[in-house]
Structure prediction request, 119 residues.
Amino acid sequence: SVEWFEKHAEVLGFGIGQEGNELEASFFLGADDATNKKFVELSKSPAKMPWAGFATDGVFLGVRTSVNMEKFWPFYLESMTPEQKKQVEGALAEAKKNTGIDIQKEVLEQATGNVGIFF
Prediction:
């Protein structure tokens, strides 16, 4: 939430680098040591993904990241205000009622933590 960033973030940054025909963009957050350590834990997916098979010479644009969903989801909920958390939990409950899918248990908690989009 915005409140969480206002409380913890000391530095936010976005960078773009280019080498040959490759362009790399990155985002970073600088905060106190405890928060930085927490983000390092959150960024390490427990599952490995063979990215080489996806990012071939024919790829025009690729975006990938990893996150430890088992640790990230509780952290994400804790970073919200009580009202925001209630809204998210309400939306998940409504989605389960409408679709029969428990998004938190069947999707979020089962995610490997590897996300990639390649064009």
The radius of gyration is 17 Å. The chain has five helices and four strands. Residues 82-99 form the longest helix (18 residues).
